[in-house]
Input
Amino acid sequence: MSEPCVLVVDDEPLVGDLIREALETAGYAVVSADSGVEALALLASGGRAWAALVTDINLGSASPLGWEVARRARSVSASLPVIYVSGDSSHDWAVQGVPMSIMISKPFTPSRVVVALADLLNAKTRDL
Output
């Protein structure tokens, strides 16, 4: 199995690329998906260890929402760090989001995702 990767899911290529580049610059391995369907297939494949999930909430009309992607990811790894990004769904985070996750509202700076991921990974390490 390869090194653990951060799964970045966003249907807006520019946003996904900005997040991926920021995480790679910070030293993380990243796999990108441009839809909830693609993300769920990657999670179901079992061929990779996941370090974290960064997902947009609204992933297009024909795609599962980021809430579902995160729930599925947590069924694969119960303590997987999850970061949600959204321009209009942050008000649903308390009800729809998985526990121990972070919501970042768009627009945001890519470094904010890096800091949030480091915070979640450090919290996970402290809990072990």
